[in-house]
Amino acid sequence: MAPAQNQITSKHVAVIGAGPAGLITSRELRREGHSVVVFEREKQVGGLWVYTPKSDSDPLSLDPTRSKVHSSIYESLRTNVPRESMGVRDFPFLPRFDDESRDARRYPNHREVLAYIQDFAREFKIEEMIRFETEVVRVEPVDGKWRVQSKTSVGFSKDEIYEAVVVCNGHYTEPNIAHIPGIKSWPGKQIHSHNYRVPDPFENEVVVVIGNFASGADISRDIAKVAKEVHIASRAREPHTYEKISVPQNNLWMHSEIDTTHEDGSIVFKNGKVIFADSIVYCTGYKYNFPFLETNGYLRIDEKRVEPLYKHVFPPALAPGLAFVGLPAMGIVFVMFEIQSKWVAAVLSGRVTLPSTDKMMEDINAWYASLDALGIPKRHTHTIGRIQSEYLNWIAKESGCELVERWRGQEVDGGYLRLVAHPETYRDEWDDDELIEEAYNDFSKKKLISVDPSYYLENGR
Ligand code: FAD
C-alpha cells in the first residue's frame, strides 16, 4: 500500500449518478468523512434497474435529437450473476422467502434488483445526499478545483465549485451499432437491444439477432417464443457455423457473422446461408459517453478505450480530483463499485497516495502493451472479467480493505462458463452448491444474517 503521510482531509465531492455505482460511492465517500452531493437526472435511485416500457424515439438511437430513456432493461430480464455474489459485501442481496412481492430465486428478475438497491439506499440513508431530477450538464477543471454546472427538470441552473468529482453515469445507454455491408438499402426494421422491451412486435417475423453474449442469448430466446424464425449472427463463431439450437418452438439457429445485406431483404451470412428477414436486433453493446465532461482534450474515448486512466479509475494529470467508478466490464459489478470507491475516498482524504503522474502513465502504457501482446483489441481495454479478482484485490490492498472472497470469484467465473455452455438453463440449474454454502457461512460468520445459513440453503433449493 502507498504510504499515508498526509493529514486526513475532508473534501467537498460531487457524484454524478444515483445508480448502484453512485449510491455505493457516495456511501464510501461519506464514511471516509467527505461531504457529498449526488446529482441524479431521474426521479428515483436505481439507474439502469429502473425498468420502463418506454424506449428511445429512434429504435437504433442514432438520431441526436431523439427523446432518450436511460434504462436498457427488458421485461423478462433476470440477473446474470447469482445473488450471493451480486450484493455489496456488508449488505448481502438476501432472498426474502417471507415476502411474496419479492423474487427469491438465485438469479432474480430486475424488479428484485431494484428493490435491493432501494433497500440499500434506505438502510444507509443515501437519499439525503441526492438532488433528484438534476442533470449535470458540464464539468470542467478550474484552478485545481472542479466547476459543476447542473440543470433541474424545471430548467433551474446552478454553477458550483467542488474539490472533486466522481463520475458514475453508467455505460449501458449509448448503443454501439455494428456496421453491416449493404445495410443502408436493406428494407427491414432495425432496433438496438437498448430499446428492446418485449417480444410482441416480432410476432410471426423472421428475425436476425446480432450478438450472442448475455443480452443476445436472452433476447433471441425471448423473441423465439413468438417469431417464425430467429437467426443469431455471432462474430465469435467460426465462419462455417450453422447450428440448430434447441428451444421449445424449434425455430432458433446460430450462424457466423453477417457477410452482406441486400435491397431485396436478404441477409447473407459468412457460412453462405441466405435468409429473408423482417427485423434485425443489434445486441452489439454500448459506448462510453461523458457528454458533460470538458478536459481540453486530455481524456479521449477511442474505440471504447477511455484514456488515459490509471487502473480504469484515475486520469493521471487530473487525479485525484476526477475519478471514474464502474468503468470496467466484469461479473463482480457491485463489489467493484465498492472497492474502487473505497480507493477513491481514501485517496481524496489523503489516507492513501497515488504514484506520480509519470508513474501512472507508465502503468497505463504497460497495460496497453500487454493487451497488444495478447492480441486483445483496443475495444476490450476495460473488459477485464478474466482478471477481475486480481484487479479488485490489487485495489483492495492499495486502499487497505478486505480482499474479494474466494467463493465470489469462483461463483462468477463458474456462472460465466455455464452461461456460455447453457444460456437457456444456467440461471436455474447449477453445480456449485458448495460455493453457495460457503457464501452463507461467510455471511453468518460476519453476522450479516440473523438466522442459521441452513434457512437460506434449504429454502433456496
Ligand atoms: P447506471 O445503473 O446506468 O446508473 C447511472 C445513473 O446516472 C442513472 O441513474 C442516470 O440517470 C444517472 N446519470 C447519467 N448521466 C447523468 C447526468 N449527466 N446527470 C445526472 N445523472 C446522470 N450487473 C450485475 O451486477 N448483475 C446483472 O445481472 C447485470 N445485468 C445487466 C443486464 C444488462 C442488460 C445490462 C445493460 C447491464 C447489466 N449489469 C448487471 C451491469 C449494470 O450496468 C450494473 O448492474 C449497474 O446498473 C451499473 O450501475 P451504474 O451506477 O454504473 O450505472
UniProtKB/TrEMBL annotation:
Tell me any Pfam family this protein matches.
Answer: FMO-like
E.C. designation(s): 1.-.-.-
User: Top EC class per UniProt?
Assistant: oxidoreductase
Superkingdom of source: Eukaryota
The positions making up the signal sequence are none
A single GO molecular-function term is:
NADP binding
Ordered alphabetically, the record's keywords are: FAD, Flavoprotein, Monooxygenase, NADP, Oxidoreductase
The UniProt entry, under InterPro entries, shows: Flavin_mOase (IPR000960), Flavin_mOase-like (IPR020946), FMO-like (IPR050346)
Does Chaperone show up as a keyword for this record?
no
Q: Where are the transmembrane segments?
A: none
Q: Which cofactor does it need?
A: FAD
Family under the similarity heading: Belongs to the FMO family.
Protein name, as recorded: Flavin-containing monooxygenase
Name its species: Arabidopsis suecica
Please spell out the taxonomic lineage of the organism that makes this protein: Eukaryota, Viridiplantae, Streptophyta, Embryophyta, Tracheophyta
